[in-house]
Amino acid sequence: MLLGFSGQLTGSHADLGVQGRNGATLAVEAVNARGGVASRPLRLLASDDGDTARGAIDADTTLLKAGAVAIIGHMTSSQTLAALPVVAAAGGVMISPTTATPELSGKKDNFFRVIPSNEAWGVALGRYAARQGLARVCLAGDTDNASYTDSFQTAFEQAFAEAGGELVCHYSFSSSRGADWGALLDQAADSGGQAIVATAAARDVAALAQTMTARNTRLPLLCPTWPYTREILAIGGRSVDGIVFATSYSEENDRPEFREFARRYRERFGWPPSFAAAYAYEAVTVLASALSRTGGEARGLGPALAATGPQTGVISPFALDESGDVARDTFLVTIKDGRFTSVAGE
After folding, report:
1. 10 Å Cβ neighbour count for 176?
2. How many whole angstroms separate alpha carbon 58 and alpha carbon 332?
3. Out of 3.40.50.410, 1.20.140.10, 3.40.50.2300, 3.30.56.10, which CATH number does the structure's domain 2-116+253-306 have?
4. pLDDT for the residue 196
5. Can you give the pTM of this predicted structure?
6. pLDDT by residue (tens digit) across 120-149?
7. Which of 139, 151, 172, 285 has the fewest CB atoms in 10 Å of its CB?
8. Helical residues (DSSP H) of the chain, grouped into ranges
9. CATH T-level topology, domain 119-247
């Protein structure tokens, strides 16, 4: 029984895709160790979407032609939005580990996800910034993932403004064409910005932090979940200490299910899992549950997913609602001495 995985497996932003593929692989192996689905083993076929819209469409088309009963992906919102109509036209189902744009919320269609909408993270960070006494903030966002970037920034802006804060500069860039971080820091200095809210991938946020260090400029950096991966630690070094992320995932999770998942992941792949790996694992487990209801067939898979009910999960218990969405708690996480840790008092 073939499952397709679509994500960025090569290039500068491959951290999400590789971790997602690995998490899905681990889940497939766990399901097969229990006898598979409908007495048939699962097989995972991964396809590289190249972190582009065209690549996403081509990847999913290839997987569907190969006979995939469902697509696990994509790992970024822009790729999901590009490929979803193609999957829908073929009568397929897509379940995303990490697509968090609210543009897909509340729709009864062929799309499901195990990560919440990013709006809650924007609200949490906006309120946190105000509690920290920040009154003037700059936004920086990657337009290559515009649906995610715009929705997160809007949620942050609204919450921050309600708390009396002011946005004093807005820097947009395309990660595929590169960013001028010096120009952003100049804008922040000229406008009196006291912090930067960066909506971008780990490699880009690390580069911004390193530019700040090189210029001997230290402004608080606040981010959504997107750059919250091991790559930011590997690339950023000491420069990324102090960054604060709003997320629904914590490495300090003490649930037995999470600890066992993390242990097996480290043994299998040689490094700790990120949120992308954990969500991909959960995407496969709930998909397997739905496939057991359809006898392993793609027909009727959408309604079966919507009817799966409460799932144990590894991050936390969760359930897909009738629109294929989930609700989860929000946490604030920071980097201290090269490690992810919860923000004290939050």
Report:
1. 13
2. 36
3. 3.40.50.2300
4. 98
5. 0.95
6. 999 999 999 999 999 999 999 999 999 999
7. 172
8. 14-33, 53-65, 77-89, 119-131, 146-162, 181-191, 202-214, 230-236, 256-269, 275-293, 301-306
9. Rossmann fold (3.40.50)
